[in-house]
Amino acid sequence: xxxxxxxxxxxxxxxxxxxxxxxxxxxxxxxxxxxxxxxxxxxxxxxxxxxxxxxxxxxxxxxxxxxxxxxxxxxxxxxxxxxxxxxxxxxxxxxxxxxxxxxxxxxxxxxxxxxxxxxxxxxxxxxxxxxxxxxxxxxxxxxxxxxxxxxxxxxxxxxxxxxxxxxxxxxxxxxxxxxxxxxxxxxxxxx
Length: 191
Prior knowledge:
It is built from six helices and two strands; from the N terminus they run ββαααααα. The chain is mostly helical. It has a domain of 104 residues: Four Helix Bundle (Hemerythrin (Met), subunit A) (Up-down Bundle), CATH 1.20.120. Strands 1-2 form a two-stranded antiparallel sheet. Strand 1 and strand 2 form a beta hairpin. The longest helix is centred in the N-terminal third of the chain and has 28 residues. The chain starts with a strand and ends in a 20-residue tail after the last helix.
């Protein structure tokens, strides 16, 4: 209370005395650097894991292509199912032979007429004269069935099939051998 300009100390509250405060931790000037480096390291690791996963998922196992003569034999075997229908059978056998010759010798057989193809074939040394003659007779027989409505018997159709198979057998590329030597022969079965 204040009386006559003096302060009555008994009435005034006593101020609280406080103890000294503990030291305040001052952040280091390099703390931001450590946080930044940690974040960058985490991002780099995530990027590398993502890249590894993506490359692994994009890798397609290498499957060697099936050789032309093997594919041709498979298609010829499938063409035998059409032997009861001469025209579809001759179309299938002729197409198999033409595609095989294109893949094996780079002839443009499927896009050309028989005459154009035989003219191109005459100017090459890729087939023997006997093979050229046999192929010419084969294609002309197929054309008779395809375009002239000739109805051959089943024996003639089998002969056409065998002629196509023989051409593939005769023109098949030689088997690949390793650098160490020829391919090993298979052992004969015991009696």
